[in-house]
Amino acid sequence: MSISSDEARVLDVCLVHSVGPGYFGETAIDKRPVGGPVAVTELGLVGDRQLGRSHGGLDKAVYCYAAEDARWWSDKIDRPCPPGMFGENLRTQALDVSRALLGERWRIGEVLLEVRMPRTPCENLSLRIGIKGFHMQFNASGRVGALLRVLERGVVQAGDRIVVESRPDHEVTVAAWATGVEAPQMRHLLDSGLPLACGVRAKARRVVDRESNRGKMS
What we know:
- Helices cover 28% and strands 29% of the residues.
- The chain is α+β, with helices and mostly antiparallel strands.
- The protein has two domains: 169 residues, M1 Pyruvate Kinase, Domain 3 (Beta Barrel); 38 residues, no CATH class.
- It has an eight-stranded mixed β-sheet. Strands 4-3-10 form a three-stranded antiparallel β-sheet, with no helix packed on it.
- β1 and β2 form a beta hairpin.
- The longest helix has 20 residues.
- The radius of gyration is 17 Å and the shape is globular.
- The termini are far apart.
């Protein structure tokens, strides 16, 4: 059964516009809207580019950002934040990306996506926005957007409806992971049975083990 709003939609589909100099080397963060349908494979949107070892791969194939969060930032920094400004592939409306749960699944036409982790911003975002240290503000806000795995291929285009097909039984949201999750929530996440991304599972295990060791020492 669908548990999403009928208004949840893809507003824009964005691909790399140009590759330019970044903080660590070349960056493909400059993404802008394109017209027409775009094919989506397990490695992301056809025609896009992801540079650097920390970008791309199956668990970071597609980056989604909510229009509502973009408007929040626009008010905060007093400048427009058009689609693609944060390096996202999908700009959405009426989909609460920040409160999406790790493991949540979204259907967009033929495409099935799974929320794997929040975006971890780096200095390239600060360069893109033109505000020193902005990537740290971005992360602290929890409004970081979601990195998605492609479970079923297809095409996406602006106007496509988004259906939240399932939500897992734990409490760890995109925003919570970005801003800090306590050991009990991490334990629940590990016990959920989800096939977590390797980095997510490793971090959750570290937090749980650290809390367990503290308990033994007290």
